[in-house]
From TrEMBL, chain A:
Record region (Disordered): 126-158
Biased composition (Basic and acidic residues): 140-158
Endpoints of the signal sequence: none
Organism whose genome encodes this protein: Venustampulla echinocandica
InterPro entries on file: TRAPPC13, TRAPPC13_M, TRAPPC13_N
Limits of the Trafficking protein particle complex subunit 13 N-terminal domain: 17-205
Protein name: DUF974-domain-containing protein
Annotated GO CC locations: TRAPPIII protein complex
Domain named Trafficking protein particle complex subunit 13 middle: residues: 231-335
Automatic annotation (TrEMBL), chain B:
Protein's name in the database: TPR-like protein
Gene source species: Venustampulla echinocandica
Region named Disordered: 1-23, 51-109
PANTHER family registered for this protein in UniProt: D-ALANYL-D-ALANINE CARBOXYPEPTIDASE, TRAFFICKING PROTEIN PARTICLE COMPLEX SUBUNIT 12
N-terminal signal peptide: none
Bias kind Polar residues: ranges: 71-86
Ranges in a coiled coil: none
SUPFAM superfamilies (UniProt xref): TPR-like
Length: 340, 514
């Protein structure tokens, strides 16, 4: 986690907790890389050659990997570090509450009713957003919501863990705080008490996509016989990857409001026999997209009504995929053209 | 980091640049003074014979450690004067084209005219003592080795010969031994076969024991392996084995902190491979039917060079991935033709698919592996099955890219129940389980891979993933990670005594997140 604030023990008991909390950001797992050694072909047997060569599998990601000099293998590796968090992505994190009691300890404590709650503090709001936890505890499905709150805890044997996964759509730049509260019941042969602690994990969410737009008026075409003609514009947008990772643009669409229609003139249009190639944006790369926008004339021959001297087209929504398919999605505010 | 050496005397690169011009001769003449100039006036186009005393510092420029040449009329020359002289290359051996871009390499690989005309000439004894300087080879510290792997019981006997060390997977010890032998006074500076074999052992073993940065520094001493100094003067054949030249490309790119250099290095080698192929094919077509045996030999050579060329192509793509130019790598892979092996097309499709997954273009990845091969009804048996398997692997990975871990887990489970070679599937299933909130299952699956009856696994991604899970499931993860390291050390030590050479017995702290 980017930054962990000191654990704020809510309860006054100074005694160390019997349950620990561990977290791992679940970015997509990555493909293991390998650097296959160049070896002579065919590998001389030890009897023909004084030199002995390392076995081909020694430099592969796993023993049975294809020995074809390629760097990527289908073997998955868990995320090694927190990485960067970007607006538009879904933040996933796993939370583990672990019973840290050693089996056979001289003061046996029974840990029961362990519960994890999580919330996200976002820059724009003072009130944290409660987060849903998955997977659900199966036995509590039939309970009413109120009951669930009190009984969905899990009893943990020493050395066992309760694991939950949270997901959160990052929509704002700036400092986010994931706050996790663990509550459990600690029972010794002589007493029992409910204990709780809270841990805060802070990270910064950055922008990854900068969108700049521009509209230009196109010559309007006569509208079959009627005296009114529909107006046309070209909406251009520059999409800049200002993050630190390579991304592939998935979809760019102008979601038009009523009375407006648009047509993208981007990479979806391919000549026959050609394959569609999605634009890849390395850090700092800019992709230009363009849409032809036309107003639809109503039965009265009137076009879209300007609002505050502006014809509103709609919003631009942009979807992209990062490394290993990590999804990002962003939509702009209303876009339009000024009219005189 | 050592700066690249600047002395012209130890720079094969310079040699290649100037060796074919008159400048080397001029320099030698300047060094040897007027006396030499006088000598050369009368003795054009001859070779000098007498052995000269070896000088302490030598480099590629001192190309002409003269071999006795029975053909040469210069036997008549005065013994004392030729002792002073290091004769200029021009007069010594038939001129060879240097392998600069555009030069005709077909003459280098086949050289029929030279061979027939000068078949009795011996090749010069080149001096490679600049590769034997002790300061090139760094000591290997144990600091990065986890404690269980440091114990003397795991370390091999110091007298074990290199081949045994390599067969047992003792990369560290083999690398140390190779450096010792390279710097030992018993190694002749002209024994290029032994020198290059030892350098290959040293560099390859360093990369295998996670000391690639050291290898990248040490490889710099080789400098330009395409230089004509690294070729036999008479046959023009390279003295450095192909696998070492390929290995040196990536390492030198890293050593000079210039990944592009790596890509270019592969292109240089590819050019040479293409020219060799052209010349081999030409020889094959000129071949008359009588010499069936040599015809077979040439055909074999052609297969080897085709494989080499394809291997270089894949290495270029890998180098682009390593320098994080995934887009460039994808474009490059599109231009590559599949290798001629029976599953060549499928391999290339699978490689493209993995790359698209990395790029995040999941749809493109799924489309990479066509449902049927380019030649339906492929006679190669099992090819259809292989294709189905690759397709399912990519499908399962695509599900992960889509965040659909349940669907992915189902495919891995199907693979596991079907039997063969399950380590990769089990590992990937365990990863899915962790993302699904089933950490206990993930841990059990990964731990089972360490004790699987088909042969325990100890590969990096396994110990790394297991250590990550240990970090998640307790505050006292260090004890678990050390325990894992001990277990792995035990497995490797047992493998070694039973004579199985697996992936090697070297592990570093990073393998266990220690």
């Amino acid at each position: 986690m980017a930054h962990q604030r000191g654990a704020a023990a809510v309860d006054a008991v100074k005694e160390p907790h019997s349950v620990s909390l561990k977290v791992l950001r679940l970015s997509r797992p990555s493909l293991s890389i390998q650097h296959p050694l160049p070896l002579p072909t065919p590998i001389p047997s030890p009897s023909d050659s004084p030199t002995v060569f390392p076995s081909p599998s020694a430099s592969l990601a796993y023993p049975g990997a294809q020995n074809d000099a390629f760097i990527l293998s289908p073997l998955l590796t868990l995320p090694p570090a927190f990485g960067s968090a970007y607006v538009g992505e879904t933040f996933s994190c796993t939370l583990c509450a672990n019973n840290e009691m050693l089996p056979g300890a001289n003061m046996p404590k029974n840990i029961s009713n362990v519960r994890i709650e999580a919330e996200m503090k976002i820059p724009s709001s003072a009130v944290p957003v409660p987060l849903g936890l998955s997977p659900n505890t199966p036995e509590s499905k039939t309970d009413t919501e109120e009951d669930q709150k009190h009984h969905d805890g899990v009893d943990l044997e020493p050395g066992r863990s309760l694991q939950k996964v949270v997901n959160f759509d990052l929509k704002e730049e700036g400092s986010h705080v994931l706050a996790v509260t663990v509550t459990y019941t600690e029972t010794t042969p002589t007493s029992g008490k409910v204990r709780t602690f809270r841990k805060l994990y802070q990270f910064v969410c950055k922008g990854c996509m900068v969108v700049r737009t521009k509209t230009g008026v196109l010559p309007s075409s006569p509208n079959d016989g009627s005296k009114n003609t529909s107006r046309k514009w070209a909406l251009e947008a520059q999409l800049e990857n200002c993050g630190e990772e390579t991304i592939t643009l998935d979809t760019v669409a102008l979601e038009t409001r009523e009375g407006i229609r648009s047509q993208g003139v981007n990479w979806e249009i391919v000549a026959e026999g050609e394959e569609m190639e999605r634009p890849v944006l390395m850090p700092g790369d800019v992709q230009q997209v363009c849409f032809l926008v036309e107003e639809l004339l109503g039965p009265d021959g009137q076009g879209a009504e300007p609002v505050d001297g502006k014809v509103v087209f709609g919003i631009l929504s942009i979807g992209w995929r990062g490394t290993m398919g990590n999804r990002g999605f962003l939509s702009t505010g209303s876009l339009g053209a000024r009219v005189k | 980091m050592d700066p690249p050496t600047k002395e012209p005397k130890t720079t094969p690169q310079r040699h290649s640049r100037h060796g074919s011009s008159g400048r080397v001769d001029e320099i030698s003449l300047a060094i040897f003074g007027n006396h030499a100039r006088e000598m050369f006036k009368g003795t054009i186009l001859t070779s000098f014979v007498a052995p000269i005393p070896r000088r302490p510092t030598r480099g590629p420029l001192d190309i002409s450690d003269p071999a006795a040449n029975p053909l040469s009329p210069t036997n008549l020359l005065h013994q004392s004067s030729s002792q002073i002289l290091s004769p200029p290359t021009r007069y010594h051996t038939p001129r060879l084209p240097s392998p600069t871009p555009g030069s005709n390499l077909s003459t280098l690989s086949s050289v029929p005219s030279f061979k027939t005309a000068h078949s009795t000439l011996q090749s010069t004894q080149k001096d490679f003592s600049y590769l034997l300087r002790p300061e090139i080879y760094h000591p290997l510290a144990l600091i990065d080795v986890p404690p269980p792997f440091r114990s003397p019981s795991v370390q091999p006997d110091p007298s074990t010969p290199i081949p045994e060390l390599i067969s047992a997977g003792h990369w560290r010890s083999a690398a140390i031994r190779a450096a010792q032998q390279l710097t030992a006074p018993t190694l002749s500076p002209s024994d290029h076969t032994a020198i290059f074999a030892l350098i290959y052992t040293r560099l390859s073993c360093l990369t295998l024991c996670n000391q690639t940065p050291l290898a990248a520094q040490e490889v710099k001493c080789l400098e330009d392996l395409n230089s004509s100094y690294y070729r036999d003067d008479i046959s023009g054949l390279p003295l450095v084995p192909w696998h070492l030249r390929v290995l040196a490309v990536r390492l030198q790119g890293m050593g000079y902190a210039d990944a592009r250099r790596g890509v270019m290095g592969y292109y240089d080698l590819a050019r040479e491979a293409r020219l060799t192929l052209t010349s081999l094919k030409k020889r094959l077509s000129e071949h008359n039917a009588k010499e069936l045996e040599t015809k077979g030999a040439i055909e074999n050579e052609i297969i080897i060079w085709k494989e080499r060329l394809h291997d270089l192509g894949i290495r270029v793509a890998s180098a682009l991935v390593e320098m994080e130019d995934l887009e460039g790598a994808a474009r490059f892979l599109k231009t590559l033709r599949p290798s001629t092996s029976s599953d060549g097309a499928l391999r290339l499709e699978a490689q493209k698919a993995l790359l698209y997954l990395c790029l995040g273009d999941v749809d493109a990845a799924r489309l990479c592996i066509s449902p049927s091969g380019p030649t339906p009804g492929d006679p190669a048996t099992g090819n259809e099955e292989e294709r189905k398997k690759e397709q399912n692997i990519i499908l399962a990975l695509s599900h992960i890219a889509d965040g659909n871990y349940d669907a992915s887990a189902a495919i891995w489970e199907e693979f596991i129940s079907s039997g063969a070679e399950t380590a990769v599937y089990k590992q990937n299933l365990a990863v899915c389980h962790l993302y699904l909130g089933r950490m206990d299952d993930a841990r059990t699956t990964l731990e089972s891979l360490l004790t699987t009856p088909e042969g325990p696994n100890t590969f990096h991604a396994l110990t790394f993933n297991l250590s990550t899970i240990y970090e998640l499931c307790t505050e006292r993860s260090r004890a678990l990670k050390i325990g894992l390291a001990e277990k792995v050390a035990g497995i490797l030590s047992k493998e070694r005594t039973s004579g199985i050479s697996g992936q090697g017995s070297e592990k570093v702290n990073g393998d266990f997140k220690l």
